[in-house]
Design brief:
The complex is a heterodimer of chains A (245) and B (230). Chain A is mostly helical and 245 residues long. Helix content of chain A is 80%, strand content 0%. Chain A has one domain. In chain A, helix 4 packs antiparallel against helix 7 and helix 7 packs antiparallel against helix 10. Chain A starts with 9 loop residues before the first helix and ends in a 7-residue tail after the last helix. Chain B is 83% helix and 0% strand. Chain B starts with a helix and ends with a helix. Chain B has 230 residues and is an all-alpha fold. The longest helix of chain B has 39 residues. Classes of the chains: A mainly alpha (245), B mainly alpha (230). At the A-B interface, helix 1, helix 2, helix 3, helix 4 and helix 6 of A face helix 1, helix 2, helix 3, helix 6 and helix 7 of B.
Chain lengths: 245, 230
């Protein structure tokens, strides 16, 4: 960590982002010529948009790689060595909270939810709900590493609870709840929180960093499913949106 | 210009909390965090700029594109064309994710090379395509999401009982790797666009759910491979 790195490995990041953009470009061209036939003005906007998302995502991922990944790892190792390692649970909670807020796809989902619900479910409300879910999940995941709780003991009751909750929550929220599991495990969480967890596992005696680090993403993905379903339960009681589906 | 100001505000409010929190932790838990903090701040500046560009790009590029395609497809009159087109889109946008290739390599390792890479990738693709089509059919037929999710996850946990334990974690991971930061906004918008035309009684419960189902497809596909070959 003595040398500051900025653009090391950037070409790899650019290549990966380009590869995942490629099918979208192909679909765009295909549909543009066969079906859409959008006017030139709109094409220009779309192309500019795609270029910006390409540049933005590449820069974002590179920043995560050189900044957040090493910070997460070193912090995790340091925390794992502490005598009073229950502190990790508290810090996990707080870091979970601030990580969701910085997760790019969370913004995108919340934006679409606010738009489609015509403002009924605001971006702010969604963000609070997701943040509470994820921060509890990260705290649980840290506790799992420290006390060696098997992954299935967390996932099985969690999914069971989710399947029970979908019977009683407002149907409006069910698809969004399960979609949000995907967006909270975006590039920020999957790198920074994962690095933190692997760091804690390698600092804690008797833990296998590889085995105990994994499973974190699965726990984090489950959390917002539960918290959004609960939000729907509260909303559904009030009868704000359609219930009879 | 107001837009730009809004984006700047949004981006700063999203990255500032984590940056403050991490730097604080670095000062508390390390004796001499100097270089570490500088390295982190450089990364954080790139993340902040990148997030801003990404969000603007998504709003003027990927979301309108997904919504336009989603809204156009049902107007071609044929349900079969709609389902086939969705099958194609579902497979095309997810299988190209760089992480799918990484997963395939891990899988070859877990299975001791007995299952070739292309077989895993075709299974994952089939799983995604199938569930993407189910997600579309669900909107057409007005089937509540909870029935499909309950059936899907029950199947996952039943299969889990038969899958060799070494395949289990990789199966669950398979769900997450197929959706990257560029495809997710596109898939969300596709659902929103599709429903704006097909829309049942509630656009909220129809517009979303595509991502959720795209998650289940690959999990089932990889588990099935594990059961067959394990």
């Amino acid at each position: 960590m003595n040398n500051i790195v900025v653009f090391e490995g950037f070409s790899n990041v650019l290549l990966e982002v380009a590869i995942s953009l490629l099918p979208l470009i192909i679909i765009f061209l295909l549909f543009q010529f066969l079906l859409l036939k959008l006017p030139l003005e709109e094409i220009k906007r779309l192309v500019i948009g795609m270029c910006l998302s390409f540049a933005g995502l590449s820069l974002f991922l590179q920043g995560v790689q050189i900044g957040f990944l090493p910070a997460g790892t070193s912090l995790g190792e340091q925390l794992g060595k502490l005598d009073y390692n229950w502190v990790v649970i508290l810090i996990g909670f707080l870091l979970g909270l601030v990580t969701v807020i910085a997760e790019p796809l969370v913004r995108v989902l919340n934006y679409e939810v606010e738009k489609v619900s015509a403002g009924h479910i605001s971006q702010r409300l969604m963000m609070y709900t997701l943040a509470i879910g994820v921060s509890i999940a990260v705290a649980v995941a840290m506790a799992r590493i420290i006390y060696g709780i098997p992954l299935l003991y967390i996932l099985a009751p969690g999914y069971l609870l989710a399947l029970i909750l979908i019977r009683y929550t407002s149907p409006t929220f069910v698809p969004v709840a399960f979609d949000s599991g995907t967006v909270v495990t975006g590039p920020m969480t999957a790198t920074f929180i994962l690095a933190l967890a692997v760091g804690v596992a390698s600092g804690t005696a008797g833990r296998d960093p590889l085995l105990d680090g994994f499973g974190l993403v699965a726990i984090v993905a489950l959390a917002p499913v539960l918290s959004v379903l609960l939000l729907g339960f509260i909303y559904g009681e009030r009868g704000v949106e359609d219930e009879d589906r | 210009m107001d837009d730009l100001k809004d984006v700047a505000k949004e981006v700063l409010s999203s990255t500032l909390p984590i940056v403050v929190m991490v730097v604080l932790c670095q000062f508390i838990f390390f004796e001499n965090p100097g270089n570490m903090v500088i390295q982190f701040i450089i990364g954080a500046i790139m993340v902040t700029l990148g997030l801003g560009l990404f969000l603007i790009g998504v709003k003027i590029g990927l979301l309108p594109l997904g919504e336009a395609i989603g809204a156009e497809l049902p107007q071609r009159g044929s349900v079969i064309i709609l389902l086939l087109a969705m099958l194609f889109i579902g497979i095309a946008v997810t299988v190209a994710e760089p992480q799918v290739n990484i997963l395939a390599n891990q899988f070859e390792y877990v299975s001791g090379g007995s299952i070739p890479k292309y077989l895993l990738i075709s299974f994952v693709a089939a799983g995604i395509g199938l569930f993407f089509t189910i997600a579309t059919a669900r909107v057409l037929l007005n089937i509540p999401m909870k029935h499909i999710l309950t059936a899907g996850y029950l199947l996952v946990f039943i299969l889990a009982a038969f899958v060799p334990p070494s395949f289990l974690p990789i199966s669950f991971d398979a769900g997450g790797v197929t959706t990257g930061p560029l495809t997710v906004p596109f898939i969300i918008a596709l659902g929103v666009g599709l429903t704006s035309v097909l829309g049942g009684k509630s656009s909220m419960s129809d517009s979303f759910g595509f991502l959720a189902l795209v998650l289940i497809g690959p999990i089932l596909a990889v588990m099935l491979l594990g059961v067959i070959y394990g």
